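Hi again,

Forgot to attach this to my earlier email, sorry! This is the prediction with FE(4)-NI(1)-S(4) cluster bound. I've pasted everything inline since the attachment limit keeps bouncing my files.
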Amino acid sequence: MGNCHNLSNQCLINKAEDENIDLVWHRYEKMLPLCGFGEKGICCRICMKGPCRIDPFGNGPQEGICGANADTIVARNLVRMIAAGTAAHSSHGKEIAKTLMQVGKKTSKSYAIKDSEKLRAIAKKMNISIEGKDIYQIAEQVAYESLKDYSRIEEEPCTWLSNSITPPRLEKLEGLGVALNNIESSVADIMSRTHLGTDADPINLLLAGMRCAIGDYTGMQISTNLSDVLFGTPEPVISEANLGVIKKDAVNIAVHGHNPLLSEIIVDVVDEMQQEARAAGATAGINIVGVCCTGNEVLLRRGIPMASNYLSQELTILTGALEAMVVDVQCIMPSLAKIASCYHTKLFTTMPEAKIPGADHFELHDENAVENARKIVKQSIEAYKRRDPNKILIPEEKSQIIAGFSTESITNLLSKIDSEKPLRPLIDNIVNGNIRGVVLFAGCNNVKITQDYNFVHMAKKLLENNILILATGCGAGAFAKNSLMNSEATNKYAGESLKAVLTMLGKEAGLDAPLPPIFHMGSCVDNSRAVDLAVNLANELNIDLYQLPVVASAPEVMSEKAIAIGTWAAGLGMPVHIGLMPPVGGSPLVAEVLTSGLKDIVDGYFIVEKDPLEAASKIIHVIEEKRAALNVTS
Ligand code: XCC
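Structure tokens for the complex follow:
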């Protein structure tokens, strides 16, 4: 088979059809029509008297067997989604914190401290004295204090919450009783209060959901910051994205999931095994590529190219040139095992909590991480020998990207212009209107929307209107794949004044081209980086977060984690655009609270709009309103 141009996804979807392989899009078609009760959130499976469903048209039952009405059922279902998202993100952070603890105790065989300067800065932020302590003692104490955020009994708010948001925001959250003291108990609280016959008040449930979502935010702060200590704080890096990064003559290994604990080690061991791969006939050696947020983690820190974001993960195997997919946790389609079995591709699971029938399980622990990573790479080299050349179809499409925009790297760059007040150049350009505002794109792909379409079309309109974009997760993947994260994109899509700012910053960065118009800040847990930047701006201006002309957007929202992120973003005061209605349509009350009532309580709220151009217009309107309220209308 030859190469196909442009339609990189479509040609592989056609290939799947020729080979009778079902992909996510086919399974979606087969699932239609989707369950209307489920979509509206009015199906209750919380006890075994039912399942109950409320008739949304008012003709049938309006109460479940226990008497719970649509408002209670919808609110309970929604907050359980938030709890699942929070559990996922924060357990990721806990793993990282436990690893840092082992490093601090000098019992780790596989990990070390890569960014000691950041570790010291974190200790300072956490009020941990570093006087007379060596780096290991500091690491141990930082890890210990971070782990306390998962287990504190005392009532004071989590350390990683109170040290990372603006003082007025903390006060507001404390006043509402949502400045949580313990991430894990906030998840347990949701499970407990949503048990049959406990909390039936939708507003009380939603408030608990907000507290839990703030726990999601807290866990993200821990994940991002402690990962930077262990693996390095991202600096701008040039790489490539899209399926074209898979090389025909290489042993291709995809790392997929979320937690960098495994992928970092895989990247480390590859160097020593290049020769072995060449000896097996792979003239281009070993090529690691990324998928989803594990992909974002290794892209930002190691420059590893990104093959795919969420929805097209199966297509990486369809290329027929992927020797192995190594997965850790979250967003991994169980279908990968079946598709891999149609090819020579090995699927390796690595975490005790994430096994997939049909995959090979190499469990990753600190004591065996390097050894198991070597075994995985070795088996991938073996798999290369079993490739079927007739099955290979690698789309040529790939885009050049500049990634690696951590809060620190942005601040360092700005400090070249103003070393005393590094944020000033950014603030000045926002105040004078060269940059009208900032939109943080986060969240997933959803099969209900043509993959990446809404991200791309919204971004182009926002850029044209001189709005700077930050991106994480699969949103960042969408922009990376679609050539929106390079200097050319600035020249092509940014409005004149935004282009001028990015050109000036590009010069400061030593490029003879502008910075990209969309800053890749990392994986989903790295949404905390965007918050850090916004908090620094707000503190510098002595205002609260909600006053900034900043909006968050998840146009292709899908996972429970995305619901948790959207909820805390609103809780921190941001208007949050989502491209699809979460399953709350069955309760006009809950829908109204989320899209409007919330604004009176926490300043942030949800804007639901599927059409990307309409969504961009609404966001531009909100940004202009915020500018007017700040009196910066120029
Ligand atoms: Fe998953 Fe993070 Fe969503 Fe992508 S963006 S589909 S959650 S990989 Ni987080």
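The chain has 25 helices and 16 strands. The chain has four domains: 28-66, 70-231, 243-391, 400-630.

That should be everything now.

G.
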